[in-house]
Amino acid sequence: MNSIASTTHLVLIPSYNPGEKVFDTVRAARAQWAPVWVVVDGSTDGSTKRLEQMASSDSGLRVIVLPENRGKGAAILQGITQAAAAGFTHVLTMDSDGQHPADRIPAFMAESLQAPDAMILGKPVFDADAPRLRVNGRKVSNGWANLETLWMGIGDSLFGFRVYPIAPLRAIMEKTRWMRRFDFDPEAVVRLCWAGVKPINLPTPVRYFSAEEGGVSHFKYLRDNFLLTGMHARLFLEFLWRLPQLVIRKLC
Ligand SMILES: Nc1nc2c(ncn2[C@@H]2O[C@H](COP(=O)(O)OP(=O)(O)O)[C@@H](O)[C@H]2O)c(=O)[nH]1
Ligand SMILES: [Mg+2]
User: Fold this and answer.
1) How many Å lie between the centroid of ligand 2 and the Cα of residue 250?
2) Which residues line the pocket of ligand 1, CB cutoff 6 A?
3) Residue 252 pLDDT level (bands cut at 50, 70, 90)
4) According to the model, what pLDDT value does residue 134 have?
């Protein structure tokens, strides 16, 4: 494989009952980059064994298996803790279900190598199949995230194709019990902005697959919108407390 090999930046793919698409997703990521780590989060769909088989013949691929499902953020925290222990400084997170474009990995990594203190955020470019409810729903989360950071430049609060500097992300996650499920992506960008990590946004195509095409989603509309609303309520209260400091930073 002619993928780019790195000792500082790795691709991290959290995975929970992802369906068939995960195998192509991992192959596509590996074609671009090494190492790629998959964190299997208590999957029960048989994907674990097949992923472990793939890793057994590929030194650029590692599969970390967690015994029970704890959520996307919890899986990412596991991954970045082990990545830091292995000497990595940055992770590119991407979904396991084929929605994110693996061919953008080198461009995101190059941007991060240029600006290692920044976070590189994908800004989704939706195809015609994207469900309107999801596209419009994220405008609400984006509005809150921009207010909570006084418009410091978050292009999209929910999109999971991103490069994070590991150290500040870990420090933030270790201080809270939240950010373990679908509240991970928006809370991470808001808190990293508060911590002074600058966002760089790159337009990124995102695909939506029908169930017949192998599309799988674990987003539950009521449960997860409830989680996201509670998260923005928490962040908004903390924002009020941080407001003087944020205004000073904005003006300087
Ligand atoms: N580790 C882990 N990852 C998850 C879990 N739920 C979702 N993910 C990851 O988050 C990505 C986005 O979730 P998904 O269910 O596809 O939501 P959607 O794309 O917003 O409809 C998935 O592709 C997985 O990579 C979970 O419970 N555990
Ligand atoms: Mg998805």
Assistant:
1) 34
2) 14-16, 18, 39, 41, 69, 71-72, 75, 95-97, 99, 160, 217-219
3) confident
4) 84
